[in-house]
Predict the structure of FAD-dependent oxidoreductase.
Amino acid sequence: MTTGCIVIVGAGQSAAVAAHALRDGGHDGAIVMVGREPHRPYERPPLSKAVLVGAEEPRLDVLADDDWLRCNVDLLSGIEAVRLDPAQRRLHLAGGRTIDYDKCLLATGGEPRLLPWAPCGGERIHYLRTVDDARRLRASLRARPRIAILGGGFLGLEVAHSALAAGAVVTVIESAPALLTRFLPAEVSGWLEATLRSEGAHLRLGTSVTRVEPMGDRPLLLVTGDGERLEVDELLVCVGMSPNDALAREAGLAIAPGAGVLVDASCRTSDPNVYACGDCASQQRPGQQQPTRLESWQNANEQARIAAAAMLGSAPPVPPFPWFWTEQGRHNIQMLGLPAAGLDYVRRGDPASGKALWIGHRGGVPMQGVALNAGGELRALRPLFDRARPVPMHEFAQDHLNLRAWAKQLLAEPAATL
Ligand SMILES: Cc1cc2nc3c(=O)[nH]c(=O)nc-3n(C[C@H](O)[C@H](O)[C@H](O)COP(=O)(O)OP(=O)(O)OC[C@H]3O[C@@H](n4cnc5c(N)ncnc54)[C@H](O)[C@@H]3O)c2cc1C
């Protein structure tokens, strides 16, 4: 049992899961959580999906009421932490209050990357990170506007589907010549593009917006790099996220090349009493050349559990293979493992039928799995990824193969027989 004061900066996904894991792990002392938003910790994934299109807003709380009460967290919401003093083990809050801690967990997430010509909160201009952003966007979608979505990443495309479902006229503008090819095999990228077009979205690929005019209550006129002038009622800017690492940076803690609070395998920063998890943390992973940040729900949860265990001095859980899901309208896409250059992909099923599964491998060793409406099958293959040994890829593509039985059989065989 531990009894000191643990302060958690941020009150989002990983903060809530960390508080829960701390209590589960026997922490009996105070847990103080400082959150800039005026809300209890809530889930963000529905913000681009059900919150935009559902008849009613779904419940978003990360923890059910009884779990939250059991955590006995002193939540200071609507307050920003402005300075971290690791030498004094003290956190300074806006307004002058300070909190002395035994351990501090930075769970500060990130902010949308802003474009200088598209001011956050500007008339008809949207960014999407918080529930308040999502409510504002939802209200705008009610008028079935012409909306341009700048950025064809997972988030932008999720909103494109939601906006189509809400009856909007949707144009997606993406600077790359194809959608999401950094993360997905080319076939999935092509399928996404064809699906969006068939559902009525207009796509402008390989170009960007260079100017917007005029502002005020008139429609926006977007001017693209190739000279197109596009009149829209609303603009959503979805061009990535910057991690909130300023507290750590200004406190002199190590920052990863690029950005993000640098942490070790137990989510400890360069200060032994300060930990970081979730979207703000950058961690060295096996097989990766640089520390990486994973902006995903699973990562936020897993790193929160690892940090909690480490703060309590217990053995941290083994990190699972990275997993991510996205909902593109009625389609569910799941990814296991991280994309890497030069993977060979083998496909099973046919995306045209709405269901397919890809394994990206190197010399037969599965490195990335991508499931289109086939999450259950991908789950069955997970142990093959964990084991990191070659498997006979030519068998995987055979239609008649029972995947579960195949994976089970491979796992039972010694490596040399494969
Ligand atoms: C719209 C949307 C859809 C998503 N969909 C998916 C999905 O389909 N699948 C998936 O895997 N992932 C998805 N994600 C990503 C996932 O939600 C995030 O990875 C996860 O929320 C990260 O959790 P976190 O705790 O690190 O950060 P957050 O949940 O962002 O919480 C950080 C909190 O810290 C607060 N904070 C920051 N600085 C300070 C400070 N100085 N003082 C006080 N408080 C501070 C912030 O205001 C924020 O409330 C989505 C994200 C968004 C925004």
